[in-house]
Design brief:
Length: about 300
């Protein structure tokens, strides 16, 4: 991937944004495997054609800088440990662990995250990443029974916290958030190894297929919203009177309240739209969003 610098930002920003990581055949990092299979394959297939400007990589740069600072000053364990293990199917799993404390038999990982992730308690990807790291450590003959994550919340604000408190809503108390420690043992490692075989076998079964035949990302993997049905008092109104998850309920409301129109609002695939670097190479995205983007560019 080529990193551009259209705003002529300092070289330090560009250096932090650039990566010397090279994709290797039959080798996958723990964080890579957490991505959808189609995305993994397309990222490798079109890596040399990808381009991103350093100005659009601010949070990735910030995350890299935070990692370097914390790891340089944390003396409770071994920092930046690189591990790997090859499965019987010939696929190698690798991981770079931020911190490992042998005394506590614990891995520690530093993250940048959004407040939204905390409010949703959406930590399944962290849990699975922790299990994979623990599995890698145990494969090397070292003890590991837990994983801890510390997240710096990039969009946290004191004002939002006060507003949430006034509305009696949940909101993180501080800009650094630590979810409960993930515990694991032999059962979790067995589950992890089974999942790793399944995931890498799925990649192997797809990697020689053409783009349009690759396994599609699930609605969960696309971070898809459910479709909505908007009821309008008059057909030309700009603002809906009410939104519904069910069309039948929307139509009943329309009849009961003498409204004229129900509009279908298809769910948006947030990952496809905003967080997938290879979306423009993906047949699903091209079919659903490609024409809309072209129309917007023409306007």
């Amino acid at each position: 991937m080529r990193v551009t610098n259209n705003l002529n930002l300092p070289a330090a920003f560009v250096k932090l944004a650039q990566s010397d990581y090279k994709y290797k055949d039959k080798r996958y990092s723990a964080t890579t495997l957490l991505k959808p299979t189609r995305q993994i394959i397309l990222l490798r297939r079109y890596h040399d054609q990808l381009e991103q400007d350093v100005a659009d990589m601010v949070w990735m740069i910030w995350g890299s800088a935070v990692h370097k600072v914390i790891e340089a000053h944390d003396e409770t364990g071994f920092a930046e440990i690189k591990l790997e293990h090859t499965l019987d199917n010939g696929r190698t799993i690798s991981g770079e662990i931020d911190l490992y404390c042998e005394k506590l038999a614990e891995v520690v990982d530093y993250k940048t995250a959004s407040v939204h992730k905390v409010l949703k308690k959406d930590f399944e990807d962290w849990r699975r990443q922790g299990w994979i790291y623990g599995w890698l450590i145990v494969k090397k003959g070292l003890p590991c029974s837990s994983a801890k994550f510390h997240a710096l919340l990039k969009d946290w604000s004191e004002r939002a916290k006060k507003q949430a408190r006034w509305r009696k809503e949940d909101y993180p108390e501080h800009s650094i958030f630590t979810p409960p420690t993930f515990k694991f043992g032999e059962s979790e490692f067995a589950t992890t190894e089974k999942w790793l075989y399944k995931k890498t076998d799925e990649i192997a079964a797809n990697e020689l297929l053409p783009d349009e035949e690759l396994i599609e990302c699930s609605s969960e993997e696309r971070w898809a919203d459910s479709p909505k049905f908007a009821v309008y008092k008059n057909k030309g109104d700009k603002k809906a009177k009410k939104l519904f998850d069910d069309r039948a309920e929307a139509e009943q409301f329309m009849r009961d309240n003498k409204c004229e129109h129900v509009q279908d609002r298809p769910g948006e695939d947030k990952r496809c739209q905003y967080y997938c670097m290879v979306n423009k190479f993906c047949p699903y995205w091209l079919k659903k969003y490609g024409n809309k983007e072209e129309q917007q560019d023409e306007e």
